Amino acid sequence: MGNKNMQEKNDSQQQFQYENLEGCQITQEEKCFALAFNRNCSCLVAGSDFNIKVFKFDYETLQQTQLLIGHQGYIQTLNFMKQTNQRFISGSCDSLIIIWELNILNSLWYKKQTLNYHIHSITCLIIDKNEDFFFSGSCDKTIKLQVMNHNQEWFCKQSIIEHSSYINGLSLNNDQNKLITCGQDQKILIIQNIDDNWIVIQKIEQYGLRLCFIFDDFFTFQPNGNVMYTYQLESNSQIVNFKQRKINLKRGGCVCTILFPCQFIQSKSLLVNKNGGYVHFVKIFDQNTYQKMQTINFGTYQVFGEISSDGQYFVSWDDLSNQIQIKKYIEQ
């Protein structure tokens, strides 16, 4: 295993900044640990303590249209199903996962199904790009694979119990056949779909809070400290070797939290990674080359957010400003 820095690209091509949108700062005193845009960015959902606020995002202005009540604990995950654009999933400290669906007759969201397979807080959730299945991670130390049956109802098909503590993060590769996870037990698990069964094929001893596939066999990993690691997997029969490199990313000395998962926007080659009170925007060109584009200092580690799937908008909430803020991608 190597431990070298990736090469930083210093050219000035494709410069950009995420800049605040006027009129898109909504004061919110309630805790907001998760936010999500739908596919075309016409709708934004945001946690509000135990409830979910629904906003219409039209002509780059925000207008609240609904308050969804269904959980008995803080909302910790929100994920839109972006193929249909008419469903999203919420996960909460109450251990429940709720599928919400849009009623096209009155344009209001309603509770479609409640899943109760975990016994502790939902900490992370990821949906495959075809929306055939999703994985959920929890403080109960398990990862659940949930799929849809012929009656269009979700059920738990498999439980992965290889972690010995809380699940911190999940990521699927582009081919949707590998899952990586990290947990409080100081392990990264590499899990592969083999004959329709998800099997742990590799364990890496490392503690961290978030991770993200960039390419099918290349991912980033954020441990404690001022660096982000990258891992290049190399398959050889049943053995998976890996090479580790690092990118220096400022943290600011404060602690960090789980939630606010890493995201990689393929169309822009752009990684969004939180580290302490900073959110970093990094272009990753290949396994050896990257470019740091922008760093936003929120002044608090209690910052949570999401970038839209096309990379055009970045939404966040932090406990210093107590605001939901939307920033727009502006090329320089």
Automatic annotation (TrEMBL):
WD repeats: 68-103
InterPro entries: WD40_rpt (IPR001680)
GO cellular component terms, A-Z: cytosolic [4Fe-4S] assembly targeting complex
GO biological process: iron-sulfur cluster assembly
Keyword field: WD repeat
PANTHER family, per database record: CYTOSOLIC IRON-SULFUR PROTEIN ASSEMBLY PROTEIN CIAO1-RELATED (PTHR19920:SF0), WD40 PROTEIN CIAO1 (PTHR19920)
Full protein name: WD40-repeat-containing domain
Biological classification of the source: Eukaryota, Sar, Alveolata, Ciliophora, Intramacronucleata
